[in-house]
Design a protein that fits this description.
- With about 130 residues, the protein is of the alpha+beta class.
- It is built from three helices and ten strands.
- The protein has helices spanning about 25-30, 55-60, 85-90; strands at about 10-15, 20-25, 35-40, 45-55, 70, 70-75, 80, 105-110, 115-120, 125.
- Strands 1, 2, 3, 4, 5, 6, 7, 8, 9 and 10 form a ten-stranded antiparallel β-sheet that branches.
- It is globular, with a radius of gyration of 15 Å.
Length: about 130
């Protein structure tokens, strides 16, 4: 099957640091209506799912407030700052992150799950 290059299909990346996860500009558009995020992991699929929650849903009381994380947005990135979250992810996937190091992973929006999927298995770009 022939596939053509599309300038709009650039690769998204999520970089995991000791205290936060940063998403590059390609993924920023998905955060436009997000007020908080909720993060889930699938160890079997080796994926991290970041569900983007709008303000109305976040404040509705339907989701446990302790599972909602704040996000920081700039013109070129989005960030989830949570050392506890990073430690949870690293432990779940048995990843050793070097002090002051980063793990850069491919990520893309998953239409089925309506979340950003970060690929932990095999799609590692650098560490």
């Amino acid at each position: 099957m022939l596939k053509f290059f599309d300038c709009n299909s650039k690769v998204g990346y999520a970089s995991i640091y000791e205290n936060h996860i940063t998403f590059n500009k390609e993924l920023l558009k998905y955060f436009s209506d997000a007020y908080r995020v909720r993060v889930g992991i699938d160890v079997e699929e080796k994926k991290i799912f970041v569900f983007l929650i709008d303000k109305d849903y976040a404040l509705s009381g339907e989701i446990n407030e302790s599972s909602l994380l704040k996000i920081s947005l700039s013109k070129s990135y989005a960030r989830i700052s949570s050392r506890a979250l990073v430690e949870y992810i690293l432990k779940a996937f048995s990843i050793n992150l070097q002090p002051n190091g980063a793990l850069k992973l491919m990520a893309q929006y998953d239409e089925k799950k309506k979340a950003i999927a970060i690929f932990v298995g095999g799609e590692k770009v650098c560490s």
